[in-house]
Design a protein that fits this description.
Blueprint (H helix, E strand, L loop, with lengths): L19 H6 L3 E5 L5 E6 L5 H12 L10 E5 L6 E8 H13 L5 E5 L10 E9 L2 E7 L5 E6 L5 H8 L4 E6 L4 H7 L6 E5 L16 H9 L7 H43 L9 H15 L8 H14 L6 E7 L2 E6 L6 H8 L3 E5 L6 E6 L2
Parallel strand pairs: 1-5, 6-9, 9-10
Antiparallel strand pairs: 2-4, 3-4, 6-7, 7-8, 11-12, 12-14, 13-14
Helix pairs in contact: 7-8, 9-10
C-alpha cells in the first residue's frame, strides 16, 4: 500500500478476493504489471492526437513483436517531443484482471509497468528483487524511460547478470526487509552496489504517464455501466408509472363527469323539446331555441341591434358627450361604434356595465368601440 508521500507503507501477498475490502474503499487502484510481462520501447512517433496515436500504435509496433497485435494492449506516454515510451502486454489476461477489479468495486484503475515504478537517478540504475515461487524476478530501471525484467533460477546468477547488462554504473537494489541481510552479504564484494530495504523505496507514480488499462476501460465504458444507477433508475421508473396511472385515473374521472353532464343536458333538452331527433350540442341548440322563441314572441335578445343601441343611447345620455359618433355597424351580435375623436371610454363603460353590456376598444384603432352583451 502506497501513502500520500508515494512511499511504500505496507507490503505483503494476498489473493484479489482477500483484498476485496481494500479495493472497494480505495480512492484508486494501481496495478504494477511484472516487468517480465511488459515490454517497453523507446521510439519516434508521428505527431498525432492521443486518440489517433493510440489507434496507430499496433501498426507502429507490429514489426517489433513476435505475436499478433490483436492479442496485445498498447499504451504511450504523454510527453512532448517526437520520442515516446511505448508499453505492450498481453490483452486476454489483462482484460480478465480488470473485470475482476471492477467486480470488486474498483473505481479508478491504472495499470503500469513495474520497471517504471523504481526511482530514477542520473548515472545510476535502480533494481528490485522479488521471489516468484522457485524463481527470482529481477526488475531493472535502466534510465528515465527504459526498463526490463529477468527471471533467474538462483541468486548466484544475480551478480553476473547485473554486470553483463550494466557494466560500470552504480546500482541501488531494493529487497524485502526479511531478505535484506542475505542480499547485503551476496553483493558485499561490489562497492558500486547498494542494497536497501523495500520500505525505503519511493514509488515513482508521478513519473509514469502511460496507462495500459485505458484502452480496455474506454471500450468497456462505451457500453454504459448501468449498475451504479440501478436504484435511481428504478425509483424514477416507479415515479413515472405512478404519475402515469394518476393522470389516466384523473382523465377517466373527468371523462366520466363530462359524459354524465352531457347526458344530463341532453335529457333536459329532450324534456323541453321532445320532438327533436338530432342533438349535436344540447347547450348551443337550447340557446338557439330560446332566442328563436323570444323573437317569435316579439321580445328582443340582449345582443340584438336594437337592445345594444338602446343601452348605448341610455349610457351616452347619462354622461357628458365628449365627442360625436360618425358610424355604427352591427355584426356578430356586437356594435362597432366609430367616434370622431379619441376619447376616454371609462364613463360610458361604467354606465353600460350596470346593465350587463361590455365596451372594449378595438385593437385596430382607438376611435372604435366594440359593444356587446354579457348575457
Amino acid at each position: 500500500m502506497v501513502g500520500k508521500a508515494e512511499h511504500l507503507e505496507r507490503q505483503g501477498s494476498a489473493t484479489l478476493q482477500e483484498l476485496a475490502a481494500a479495493v472497494a474503499t480505495a480512492q484508486r487502484v494501481i496495478v504494477w504489471l511484472a516487468a517480465v510481462d511488459v515490454t517497453l520501447f523507446r521510439m519516434p512517433v508521428p505527431p498525432l492526437s492521443p486518440a489517433r496515436l493510440q489507434a496507430a500504435l499496433p501498426n507502429l509496433l507490429e514489426e517489433q513483436l513476435l505475436t499478433n497485435v490483436s492479442d496485445c494492449v498498447f499504451s504511450s506516454t504523454s510527453e512532448k517531443g517526437p520520442l515516446r515510451t511505448l508499453a505492450v502486454t498481453q490483452r486476454a489476461w489483462l482484460e480478465a484482471l480488470l473485470q475482476t477489479l471492477r467486480q470488486l468495486g474498483a473505481r479508478h484503475i491504472r495499470v503500469l509497468p513495474e520497471q517504471l515504478s523504481l526511482p530514477y537517478h542520473a548515472d545510476e540504475v535502480s533494481a528490485q528483487i522479488s521471489e516468484q515461487g522457485q524463481l527470482l524476478l529481477l526488475n531493472l530501471r535502466l534510465n528515465e524511460h527504459e526498463g526490463m525484467g529477468l527471471l533467474l533460477d538462483h541468486s548466484t546468477q544475480l551478480l553476473p547478470s547485473l554486470r553483463a547488462l550494466i557494466a560500470e554504473l552504480a546500482i541501488t537494489i531494493y529487497v524485502n526487509d526479511e531478505q535484506y541481510e542475505h542480499y547485503c552479504a551476496l553483493f558485499g564484494g561490489d562497492n558500486k552496489i547498494k542494497v536497501l530495504p523495500l520500505t525505503r523505496m519511493p514509488i515513482a507514480l508521478h513519473e509514469v504517464s502511460l496507462n495500459l488499462a485505458a484502452d480496455i476501460l474506454a471500450a468497456q465504458h462505451s457500453t454504459w455501466d448501468w449498475r451504479p444507477w440501478r436504484w435511481p433508475l428504478l425509483l424514477g421508473t416507479a415515479l413515472l408509472l405512478t404519475q402515469t396511472v394518476a393522470i389516466n385515473l384523473d382523465w377517466w374521472h373527468l371523462s366520466r363527469e363530462a359524459r354524465d353532464l352531457r347526458t344530463s343536458m341532453t335529457q333536459i333538452y329532450l324534456s323541453a323539446y321532445p320532438k327533436e331527433t338530432v342533438i349535436l350540442d344540447p347547450l348551443l341548440q337550447m340557446q338557439q331555441k330560446i332566442a328563436t322563441t323570444r323573437r317569435e314572441a316579439g321580445l328582443s335578445s340582449p345582443d340584438d341591434f336594437n337592445s345594444l343601441v338602446a343601452e348605448l343611447g341610455a349610457a351616452w345620455s347619462s354622461t357628458p358627450a365628449p365627442t360625436s359618433i360618425t358610424a355604427i355597424e352591427y355584426h356578430d351580435h356586437k356594435l362597432n361604434v366609430t367616434l370622431k375623436d379619441k376619447v376616454s371610454s371609462v364613463a360610458i363603460q361604467t354606465a353600460l356595465a350596470q346593465h350587463g353590456v361590455t365596451l372594449e376598444t378595438s385593437p385596430d384603432t382607438d376611435r372604435t368601440w366594440i359593444i356587446g352583451s354579457k348575457k
